[in-house]
Amino acid sequence: MVSEKEIKDCFSKELTWIKDETLKEKVVAIWKAAADERGWNSIHDVPFTLLIEESGRLTDHTKRMTHMVYAVMKQREEDLNQDYLIAGSLLHDVGKLVEYDVINKKIVKGEYGKKFRHPLAGAKLAWQHDLPDEIAHIIYAHSHEGDKTKRSAEAVIVNHCDFIDFEIKKSMVEE
Ligand SMILES: [Fe+2]
Fold first, then answer.
1. 39 CA to middle of ligand 1, Å?
2. For residue 85, what is the domain's CATH number?
3. 162 CA to centre of ligand 1 in angstroms
4. 131 and 120 in contact (C-beta within 8 Å)?
5. By the 8 A CB rule, do 17 and 70 touch?
6. Chain centroid offset of residue 24 CA
7. 78 phi and psi, to 5 degrees?
8. pLDDT digits (tens, 9 = 90+) for 67-79
9. Domain housing 16
10. How many CB atoms lie within 10 A of CB 105?
């Protein structure tokens, strides 16, 4: 079972960028709830993506992403909501913990994941923990699901930083 300590240690730097203590705790609680739902032994066992072979760990992607999001935010003059942005970034892929399943020691898209991709699964977890719609929107809209919506400024940043990291990884394995 994943401990809260493991999650807090993993995101120790990034969590300091969330000012609201309750929100910080909820981000950790959501990672734990998602991990417990599928019985992950460690959050570091979850792969970044099944679309790229040896894509690395989801935790590393989440950290890289959140640092990029923070850097972009620091360069903007608009009144962006830092708490929403960082919480949304740390949680954007948490739905992968329930989208994926371990079958015969292999990590695959599970039955639940075939019905509900991680953006929706993640938004559901956010609502279940009473996070504001603005954060659920960032999670839901971070991938193609959001193409049919009008993304908030915070969601635009998360969407683009996510794809920067994904596309760079992909470019490394393509011929
Ligand atoms: Fe992502």
1. 21
2. 1.10.3210
3. 5
4. no
5. yes
6. 14
7. -65, 160
8. 999 999 999 999 9
9. 4-46+53-173
10. 5
H or E stretch including 133?
Answer: helix 133-140
**Left (φ > 0), alpha (ψ -120 to 50) or beta: where does 91 sit?**
alpha
The model's pLDDT over 8-61, given as tens digits with 9 standing for 90+, comes to: 999 999 999 999 999 999 999 999 999 999 999 999 999 999 999 889 999 999
Residue 92 Cα to ligand 1 midpoint, Å, equals 6
Ligand 1 centroid–CA 3 distance in Å is: 22
Q: Among 102, 87, 94, 82, which Cα is nearest to 35's? A: 94
Instruction: State in Å: Cα 61 to ligand 1 middle.
Output: 7
Q: Is 47 helix (H, G, I), strand (E, B) or coil?
A: strand
- What's the whole-model pTM score? 0.97
Q: How far is the CA of 109 from the centre of ligand 1 (A)?
A: 16
The pLDDT of residue 97 is above 70: yes
> Ligand 1 centroid vs 90 CA: distance in angstroms?
9
In the chain, how many domains are there? 1
Residue 28 near residue 124 (C-beta atoms within 8 A): no
| Cα 79 to averaged position of ligand 1 atoms, centre (Å) | 24
How far apart are the two ends of the chain, measured CA to CA in Å?
A: 39
Is the distance from CB of 97 to CB of 40 less than 8 angstroms?
A: yes
